[in-house]
Write a structure and sequence with these properties.
This protein has 350 residues and is of the alpha+beta class. It is built from 14 helices and 7 strands. Strands 1, 2, 3, 4, 5, 6 and 7 form a 7-stranded mixed β-sheet that branches. The chain is globular and about 75 Å long. Bound molecules: iron/sulfur cluster. Iron/sulfur cluster binds next to α9 and α12. Residues 144, 147-148, 189-190, 195, 197, 200, 202-203, 206, 208-209, 214 line the site of iron/sulfur cluster.
Length: 350
């Protein structure tokens, strides 16, 4: 790889850098670590378009890491609702409280010790906020590097090789801009499908482009089939108010508001038969990282509030729910609207 590869990339970045709310323009002072950290945590598993409004709302509510450290846990979880992967929000608060006490760690190893900060995020903060040389490798960067070097080894086993190649490309100066340039190149030019090689600053040195097969890289190992879990959620409504419960602090959607229901269990012959035996039920299919959930939603309207744990919320103005339960609520409200239109459809009442 020619030694001026990064110089080419930086010259391209100086002109084509994406304008993002958590970024500084090339050649201006680095953004505060708080902005870099907050955005990087939000961007884990979530795209920039979705993160933008959340980032703005968080900064408005908690302008500094000290403000966030003093925030009410419930308010932060509610502000996070809809972003998914809720462990990130719990880690965000835990890390803010460490930083508010002890200050920002000064190197990658110290950053990695913060809750929710892994290798990639620590490197991104070190490079972008602190101007340190750090090797920042996310999915976009892996794709660019795999194509530049036409790496035939398959992911995920190829990850070490790709990291070493990304390391070789990383300059001692402007390491943060280099990292952001690689991310931008992957997001806007070297896209997963139909990469725009004609607009790429690295086209003349790219092995995949030379071989006329950029989309063949990165090579990926065959995916394992995602297991299925099943469960039931209960929509219990009285006079337009629905019963919600706070989920346990640990585990999936921990600490979030949700519909009460059964545990989510591995699908087996019995659960498959049961879930197929109620054709009138609503079923939400929701994909988590490690499994697909098929959540049946059982609806019951009561004349009086039953003596059950939880809190009653106006069904017409539900807020702060994670996406799974937003989808369940929307499905129930659709069924209810259809029933109102069709006199032959009766909903269960008790
Ligand atoms: S030339 Fe094409 S495949 Fe190679 S890095 Fe640039 S956009 Fe990606």
């Amino acid at each position: 790889m020619p030694p001026d590869t990064s110089a080419h990339l930086l010259a391209w970045y100086d002109v084509h850098a994406r304008v993002l709310p958590w970024r500084s323009r090339p050649g201006t002072p680095a953004p505060e670590p708080y902005r870099v950290w907050l955005s990087e945590i939000m961007l884990q598993q979530t795209g920039t378009a979705t993160v933008g409004p959340y980032f703005g709302r968080f900064l408005a509510a908690w302008p500094s890491v000290a403000d966030l450290s003093a925030a009410d846990d419930g308010a932060v979880m509610q502000a996070w609702a809809g972003l998914g992967y809720y462990a990130r929000a719990r880690n965000l608060l835990a890390a803010a409280r460490v930083v508010a006490c002890s200050g920002w760690p000064s190197d990658e190893a110290g950053l990695r010790a913060l809750p929710g900060v892994g290798t990639y995020t620590a490197a991104a903060i070190a490079a972008i906020a602190f101007g340190q040389r750090a090797v920042v490798v996310d999915g976009n960067v892996e794709r660019v590097v795999a194509r530049l070097f036409a790496v035939e080894a398959a992911l995920p086993a190829a990850r070490r090789t790709l990291y070493a190649l990304a390391d070789a490309l990383t300059p001692a100066e402007r390491s943060g801009d280099h990292a952001q340039a690689m991310m931008d190149l992957g997001a806007t030019v070297c896209t997963p499908r139909a990469p725009k090689c004609e607009a790429c600053p690295l086209a003349t040195i790219c092995a995949a482009h030379a071989g006329n097969a950029p989309e063949r890289f990165p090579v990926k190992a065959a995916k394992a089939v995602r297991p299925v879990r099943v469960g039931t959620a209960y929509w219990i409504e009285v006079d337009g108010y629905v019963l919600l419960e706070q989920r346990p602090p640990r585990g999936l959607l921990g600490g979030m508001l949700g519909l009460p229901g059964t545990p989510w269990e591995q699908e087996n012959v019995h659960s498959a038969t049961l879930s197929a035996s109620h054709p009138g039920d609503i079923t939400i299919r929701h994909v988590f990282t490690h499994f697909e959930l098929r959540l049946s939603v059982a609806i019951a309207y009561h004349a009086a509030r039953p003596d059950l744990p939880g809190e009653w919320h106006d069904a017409a103005t539900l807020t702060g729910l994670p996406t799974l339960f937003v989808r369940a609520a929307e499905a129930v409200l659709r069924v209810r609207a259809d029933a109102a239109l069709s006199p032959n459809l009766a909903l269960e009442t008790a």
